């Protein structure tokens, strides 16, 4: 006998990529913009994404009316340095040039929150860029695909042409550690969201 469908979770994000991934997984959800400022923190990347994911989820918990809240954060890491969202085309080009021909990590943090419990997990995906020419860099920066993107690229668009190889959860690179989310939903709500 299958479990009754769970109430739509509350996604504390306005990211179209995160909405698309939840829709692709068949997870019912509603969206609310988080009231959380992502301040830079001098902490390791795993702690950073966990802190930001938790902050986003907690910032909308009062609107959840007991429903499950999902907060997510993503950063790009190379040689221990965190690459967030570039503020200008020049900054984007410098980030991409640094990532060129090298392997970096995309670290995604996920917080599931209810009034009774909280789950915090993270996922790491290794992404290798092919060597990029000045022409590659100029074309991608001109496409504006870097805007609002950690590490200055979006793998699901034209940025996919920058990538030579990935190891791990592809959807984590897009913006949501989907494998971790599915595992948690299956454990906490067997059958309720269609998993487990």
Task: Report on the architecture of this protein.
The chain has helices at residues 16-25, 45-59, 89-99, 134-143, 170-174, 178-188, and strands at 9-11, 29-31, 69-78, 81-83, 103-113, 118-129, 163-167. Strands 1, 2, 3, 4, 5, 6 and 7 form a 7-stranded mixed beta sheet that branches. With 196 residues, the protein is α/β, with parallel strands linked by helices. The model has no long low-confidence stretch (mean pLDDT 94). It has a single domain (9-188), classed as Alpha-Beta Complex (Maf protein), CATH 3.90.950. It is built from 6 helices and 7 strands. The longest helix is centred in the N-terminal third of the chain and has 15 residues, at 45-59.
Number of strands: 7
CATH T-level topology: Maf protein
Order of helices and strands: EHEHEEHEEHEHH
Shape: elongated
CATH architecture assignment name:
Alpha-Beta Complex
Topology:
Elements: E1 9-11, H1 16-25, E2 29-31, H2 45-59, E3 69-78, E4 81-83, H3 89-99, E5 103-113, E6 118-129, H4 134-143, E7 163-167, H5 170-174, H6 178-188
Parallel strand pairs: 1-2, 1-3
Antiparallel strand pairs: 3-4, 3-5, 5-6, 6-7
Helix pairs in contact: 3-4
